[in-house]
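Retro notes, structure queue

What went well: the backlog is down to a handful. What didn't: a couple of records were mislabeled last round, so from now on we paste the full input next to the output in the thread. Example, using Non-heme chloroperoxidase from uncultured Sphingosinicella sp:
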Amino acid sequence: MPIIETRDGTEIYVKDWGNDGRPVILIHGWPLSADSWDDQAMALAQAGYRVLAYDRRGFGRSDQPWEGYDYDTFADDLADVIEAAEIESDAAIIGFSMGGGEVARYMSRHGGKGVSQAALIGSVVPYMLKTPDNPEGVDQSVFEQIAAGINKDRPDFFRSFFKDFFGVGVISHPVSQAVVDWAWRLAMQAGLRPTLAAAEAFGTTDFRPDLAAFTVPTLIIHGTSDATVPIDATARAAAKGIAGSRLIEYEGAPHGLFATHKDRLTADLLEFLEQGNSRGAFFGGRTAETTV
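Corresponding output:
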């Protein structure tokens, strides 16, 4: 099942790894592709799970239509992937960065059909944009600067972007230059129109109304030094709004946890999924548990 066709005719590239075990669906961040999940996907498949990771429309090996870069459509694409994979129940959906938005909108728009666990990793949920009622958010000017940088010189913009993404500095080198270059190449697979439109979508979509739809055990993981998706406006707010969720904060960690903290992230996801296998994953109560 390398390609599925969505309800509007867009072809989505899907990797389907592992055996007939419990399904886990991995949703990548901006501006990457499903390949960014490879380390975790391999480990989960080797642990007996059926792992699906797909390229968001406009990115990686999927089609690049002109329209459809809004979260209602993204959630519908997720629903179409789930249907094409013939998944009817007991799935875990895990979204990184803007992929957390697909998780949230799928839970509300599609009633969380077939989902028994959810995870938000470095996610943009519930609301990135700074507004009077969201003072911890990011100024609109930042998103405007991102768009301007991409339009001026997209390859050069992403050279700098991924240094912050992975927390690479003069002294700090949590990943090799090869990893930064690899992420850059993934980003450059995307079309210009999808790259800009998706950035606008994750920067302006308010997922606060979607939080009540999280009626399954939900794990939230975020780095405290995330300069790309600030933790106060996202993970900490999401943990307060999602009943019974668990927030794990990676102290001093940047945004690109799938690479900078890949072993810890994999271990935390495996533990969470195992709790789901034993039906013991609901963390209980309305107050989230926070682990640093």
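Agreed that this is the format going forward. Reviewer comment attached to the example: Strands lie at 3-5, 11-17, 23-27, 50-54, 91-96, 115-121, 218-223, 246-250, 289-291.
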